[in-house]
Specification:
Largest sheet: 6 strands, mixed
Radius of gyration: 16 Å
Helix content: 10-25%
Number of helices: 4
Strand content: 15-25%
Order of helices and strands: HEEHEEEEEEEEEEEEHEH
Shape: globular
Number of strands: 15
Length: about 250
């Protein structure tokens, strides 16, 4: 989440709840208008094939999340599979649609970190757990210049963080680059936007950001090089989403 030291816009950003260092505190829905549920009305499918008629499925992804991906018309999926419901360790798999509608792996799996207390189906502010669900990925930003993102990129000093995480690790550089997870936020706005459609009690400011050597407050953290690769890969024309949760939740 965004830094607590930045009371201007970062307090709610807390990257998950109130500051960028907090990493999101919301579970719930993500829709393209309110930013609440991943099962929003899907955009029109590209080309002659409708997503509904494409039968291939993403490996490791259960029918429930697969249906959400299809409803959103996604052609890029960031699949975050947590080691266990109470674990802060996870693995990221990236998939994209092929020319014939098949899902194919875009990169080899990446290591990642998630909320300190693991995963939750009902995220609330400050619960230190990452929300389970499928959420849009529409906006990026960070302290450093745009490394080549196709998503709208918001560079601002508000992303600077020099605090420490829950286990005492430095958060410096964690928000050099971020991608906002559309949980309890308005898509199409910078990641630092403080509007919370479901209310502040449901948390907010949940990002994909750079790993700071420990668990997050609700966000997903990637190694610095992988974060740069992700920003260059995500393409708004392919309606990217993140499907995230512990391994049992994402496989149902």
């Amino acid at each position: 989440m965004l830094n607590t030291k930045l009371p201007r816009l970062i307090v709610p950003l807390l990257l998950c709840t109130v500051s960028l260092s907090a990493c999101g505190n919301e579970s719930g829905r993500d829709d393209s208008r309110s930013g609440n549920h991943a099962e929003a009305a899907a955009p029109k499918a590209h080309g002659s094939l409708s997503f509904r008629n494409r039968s291939s499925a993403i490996p490791q992804l259960g029918q429930r999340m697969q249906r959400s991906v299809e409803r959103l018309g996604a052609e890029q999926v960031v699949l975050v599979s947590g080691d266990a419901p109470d674990s802060s360790y996870s693995t990221v798999h990236l998939y994209e649609r092929g020319a014939k509608g098949e899902w194919r792996r875009a990169f080899e799996p990446w290591p990642a970190r998630n909320g300190q207390r693991g995963w939750t189906m009902q995220h609330t502010a400050g619960d230190l757990s990452s929300p389970v669900g499928v959420f849009g990925l529409s906006d990026a930003g960070g302290l450093l210049p745009d490394p080549g993102s196709k998503l709208p990129y918001d560079q601002s000093p508000v992303y600077e963080e020099d605090g420490v995480g829950s286990l005492g690790q430095s958060l410096r550089g964690a928000f050099d680059h971020v991608v906002a997870i559309n949980y309890n936020r308005n898509p199409g706005t910078p990641p630092r936007n403080l509007v919370r459609p479901m209310g502040s009690e449901r948390g907010g400011g949940i990002f994909i950001h750079i790993d700071h050597g420990g668990p997050t407050q609700a966000c997903v953290a990637l190694p610095r090089k992988k974060m740069s690769d992700l920003l260059k890969w995500l393409d708004p024309r392919m309606h990217p989403v993140i499907a995230m949760g512990d391994i049992e939740s994402v496989s149902r």
